[in-house]
Amino acid sequence: MSRKAQTVHTDPAAIERIQERIEQLPGGAHVSLLMEDGEEIEGIVVVRPSAQLFFGPDGKEGTNARVRLSQPAMYQPESVANTDVWLDRIVLIRRLDPEEQPAPAPGH
């Protein structure tokens, strides 16, 4: 993957928002992402994203992250698609699968 991004962030608040989104995107989660342009993207998180350093169009270095979603084809497995999504473009993350419940404490 390229080390270039449309947008990079150096502001601590923007980087914190990216980190919060990372926490909401564990590997294997089935999610629907509402993007800032109104598009909705649905898929399975291939692996939890991580914040990385990228270079913006102006050559300045900053932080961003992207998540790879797998969009499985239920009846045509050969047409599985992967989509990479920049976390700073996500407005809302909605889990479509039940989140894993913690195991009960021993003795309960």
Automatic annotation (TrEMBL):
Matching InterPro entries: DUF3247 (IPR021649)
Pfam families: DUF3247
Protein name as catalogued: DUF3247 family protein
Native species: Novilysobacter avium
